[in-house]
User: Fold this.
Amino acid sequence: LLLNGFLPGDEENVPFALCEDGACPEEQLVIIRSRLDQSMAENQELKKELLKYKHEVRNLQGVKDALQQRLTQQDSSVLQLKQELLRASMTKDELYNQNTELQRKVEERNRLLGEYKRELGQKDRLLQQQQTKLEEIQRKLSEVNHPKPVASLSCHSVQSNGYLQSAGKGDASSAYRQTDDLQLVRDALRSLRNSFSGHDPQHHTIDSLEQGISSLMERLHVAEVQRRQERKVHGKSTGNKDAHEYRDSWLPNSKLRHSRSSPALSSDASTKVLYYTDRSLTPFVVNIPKRLGEVTLRDFKSATDREGNYRYHFKALDPEFGTVKEEVFDDDDIIPGWEGKIVAWVEEDRGDNS
Assistant:
């Protein structure tokens, strides 16, 4: 108030004057310097406040940038989480579809397994039935080929009294019964084998049955030969002749198809035939009552007794190529031999080349 003549609040209403009226120049200079110093002080304070506010603004701008950067990172994280959630949802849907497909496949496999079990049970029952029939046929064959002693004595008495004709009729009827039984055995084994697939393990069981029947027929043949020799010793030449004709009539028919272990016959006029099929890895053996070089394809077909169309190859020696497989087509052609026997391959003709 002393310097300016008014209060600081009255500065707006009071005009600014550099000097006062009636003051000397020195006083006016002092007043002006004091006002200048005061203005400079206020200016410094204002600059300090401005610097402080600028610093605060910079801090706030840094905080703002940091917050914006953090917000951007969070937005990126949220977007990444959304993408992962979408992929997880798609994976879940895919796994659900795969689970549904696997369940459907499992149900289908279970259904097929049930059908296979039913088919296997039916085949087992059929095999048991065929085995029962086969045992019954073997029992009948044993009864037919091993007559009771009383029957042999009565036959001897009939022959001693000269009634050879009636005895020959009895032998013929017995031969017919044996032929029918053997044919029944072959038909039963054929139907049983055809009911299985080409690589079914039940073929081994059928082969074992055939081996047993073949061995049984061979023993029956040996027993018949012994009985014939005994009859020769007792001088029954006529009966021996009838028995020889009877045995020659049924012996070739006793060879079962696919027989694997039929031993060689005692006769020198027979040929052993070893042949392979596409249904079994084990070769089969049959004997044909003809000398090597006289056996035809028709004889081989009769001995193997197979239904259907087949191609027949035989092991032979070619002068140019050496050991070959020779295919025979005509039934009247002679089958080539190999080291005193016949080695053959029987393949089913499926008509691929037609």
